[in-house]
């Protein structure tokens, strides 16, 4: 399997491969990005704040090699690829089967750009998330300083602003 760059400004219905446990098996499926809001509103939700919540079922992993948003990108300083911790929802009569990515407080590398970030899991932590082997508050937390390499794209404004 190969991971690819994750574009935060991609259309919410963009399809992407996720990894999940379903019917007792671990499987890779391609799903659109964007949960229907719980209040039934018309605007899909692409990210979900994780603090104070539990996710006992419908967990998924979203593989990525780099995350890009407008003027900036980040990747692991080691050059390895990683996973975003996510959740998926089964299809309903009026909404397809979809996924969203969980967010956490930004780590020291990303904090100068934004207060929050998508929850990044290194490959050695992927099954702990997928299998629910550790409590959410132990795995959905910022990685240590120096984990990420931040890159500003050519022509990007010098102002530090990154919306996640």
TrEMBL record:
GO terms for molecular function: single-stranded DNA binding. InterPro entries: SRAP (IPR003738), SRAP-like (IPR036590). One of its GO terms (biological process) is protein-DNA covalent cross-linking repair. Pfam families: SRAP (PF02586). Gene3D superfamilies: SOS response associated peptidase-like. It comes from the Bacteria. This is Putative SOS response-associated peptidase YedK. It comes from Rhizobium aethiopicum. The lineage of its organism: Bacteria, Pseudomonadati, Pseudomonadota, Alphaproteobacteria, Hyphomicrobiales.
């Amino acid at each position: 399997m190969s991971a690819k760059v994750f574009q935060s400004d991609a259309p919410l219905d963009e399809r992407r491969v996720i990894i999940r446990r379903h019917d007792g098996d671990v499987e890779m499926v391609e799903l659109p990005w964007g949960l229907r809001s719980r209040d039934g509103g018309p605007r899909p939700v692409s990210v979900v704040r994780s603090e104070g919540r539990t996710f006992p079922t419908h967990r998924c992993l979203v593989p990525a090699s780099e995350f890009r948003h407008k003027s900036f990108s980040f990747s692991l300083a080691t050059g390895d690829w990683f996973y975003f911790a996510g959740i998926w929802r089964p299809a309903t009569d009026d909404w397809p089967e979809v996924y969203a990515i969980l967010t956490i407080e930004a780590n020291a590398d990303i904090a100068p750009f934004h207060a929050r970030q998508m929850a990044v899991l290194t490959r050695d932590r992927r099954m702990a998330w997928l299998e629910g082997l550790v409590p959410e508050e132990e795995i959905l937390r910022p990685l240590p300083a120096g984990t990420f390499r931040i890159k500003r794209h050519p022509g990007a404004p010098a102002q530090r602003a990154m919306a996640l």
